[in-house]
Amino acid sequence: MKKVVFFVLSVFISLFAATYRWGDSAHSMGLIKAEGGKALHPAFLESGWGGYTLISTATVIPPYSGDVRIVLEGQPQLSYSLYASHPVIDLGLRRLPTFKDDVFYGLMPGDRIALWAVIKPPTVDPVCKMPHQENFIRHTHNGKDYFFCSEGCLSEFQNSPGKYKDDRYVEGKYKLVFYDTKTDKSVLSVPVIFAAKGEASHAGQHQH
Ligand SMILES: [Zn+2]
């Protein structure tokens, strides 16, 4: 049995490693409130990674109770999957609310939730980072397909392919929004900021 688990795990890890450069991750904490709750700080993620994990923990502030749908908003749209889990560090967890199809059901005052958002950046032209569109030019390099907005970007890539390996990229401001399913009002909004390495830590310092 142990062997099987180990095998499955190692297959998963090698698949993951093949698909992504190891991703960046961030944690945010927030308060879920009827009148619109806030994150204690924005989540900063470094642009240029092939995948991201955002761990969001939140406490339900009385008197709020209800069902909450979670959406990652921003342009261009990112593909992502949401998972609920027991918080890694949680001294006050009383129960784990049901989570299904991006909705927490029956949140009660005092509940604490932990949510994992696994985010995949969009495919881009590796030279100018423009998000992929239907009319892009396909070019195969070392058995991998890349897409370019113009002949100019394609020839730039062909001149120095080593310089432009990353064809998944995201930059800018997104929001992880928790909507009450009855009123459609936001009960928590977590700013999620993708920025280049220097900019992310710079922006982070301004928050303090
Ligand atoms: Zn381009």
Describe the protein's architecture and organization.
The strands form 3 sheets. Strands 2, 3, 5, 7, 8, 12 and 13 form a 7-stranded mixed sheet that branches. A 4-stranded mixed sheet has the order 1-4-9-6, with no helix packed on it. A two-stranded antiparallel ribbon has the order 10-11. It is α+β, with helices and mostly antiparallel strands. The protein is elongated and about 60 Å long. The protein is 18% helix and 41% strand. The chain folds into 2 domains: 21-122 and 171-200, Sandwich (Immunoglobulin-like), CATH 2.60.40; 123-167, no CATH class.
Notable traits:
single chain, 208 residues, alpha+beta, Immunoglobulin-like, four-stranded mixed β-sheet, 13 strands, 41% strand, disordered C terminus, binds zinc ion
Strand-helix topology:
Layout: H1 2-19, E1 24-32, E2 37-38, E3 43-46, E4 52-60, E5 66-73, E6 79-85, E7 98-100, E8 103-107, E9 112-120, E10 137-141, E11 144-148, H2 151-159, E12 172-180, E13 186-195, H3 197-206
Parallel strand pairs: 1-4, 2-13, 3-13
Antiparallel strand pairs: 4-9, 5-8, 5-12, 6-9, 7-8, 10-11, 12-13
The structure holds zinc ion.
Zinc ion binds next to loops.
